[in-house]
Design goal:
Helix 1 crosses helix 2. The chain is mostly helical and 195 residues long. The chain is elongated. The termini are far apart.
Length: 195
């Protein structure tokens, strides 16, 4: 009996696409590839092959490999921000925002950590993307609690969010700690931060 072969996306037939559509296609392929491998194992040659284009053409859209990775990380961050919102009509918007974020990390923890806290996290473009995620999440937390966004409060909430992010990542390797445990801890500590 031969071992089952892992299914790989088939290369797309060659066809001309407008530049913006081609860029979106290449980023979408990068996101699909991230589901199976960490970003440092993401091969631009493979992405080009799946897209049905040459490696050289990929670099016409993204001048460097790092620019391509930043585009993929930016798209992943936008997905996170779309996912990290409470359900409409949630009677506890704070808990809803925190739960949505921690649940996203629960599903994508390894890739999230690699994207923002691995070697790629030191790249200025990646740091800027991560900073945008943090400030957006802090604004959502302030909104969910009805707290006025002063400079001091925003700084405190950004620091709190960094702690929640770290705990959410750590719990992915410790199954005895649940998503609910992290959410409860986050909500309790935020109340102390905002007092």
């Amino acid at each position: 009996m031969t071992p089952a072969r892992q299914a790989h996306p088939q290369p797309a037939p060659r066809r001309r696409l407008p530049p913006e559509e081609r860029k979106r296609q290449l980023v979408a392929i990068g996101l699909q590839e991230l589901a199976a491998r960490p970003i440092h194992a993401l091969s631009v040659d493979r992405v080009a092959e799946i897209a049905g284009i040459s490696r050289g053409l990929l670099f016409r859209y993204f001048p460097t490999k790092q620019d391509y990775y930043a585009a993929v990380v930016g798209a992943a961050a936008r997905r996170l921000l779309r996912a990290a919102v409470p359900d409409p009509g949630d009677d506890d918007p704070l808990r809803g925002v925190v739960r949505a974020f921690v649940s996203f990390i629960d599903r994508h923890g390894q890739n999230y950590q690699t994207l923002f806290h691995g070697g790629f996290g030191y790249d200025p473009q990646i740091r800027e993307i991560h900073e945008n995620v943090k400030t957006t999440m802090a604004a959502r937390i302030l909104d969910a609690t009805g707290t006025e966004a002063s400079t001091a409060t925003t700084i405190k909430v950004c620091g709190w969010w960094t702690m929640v992010e770290s705990v959410a990542i750590d719990r992915t390797t410790e199954p005895s700690v649940t998503v609910d445990d992290v959410v409860d801890f986050a909500v309790r500590t935020l109340r102390a931060v905002l007092m």
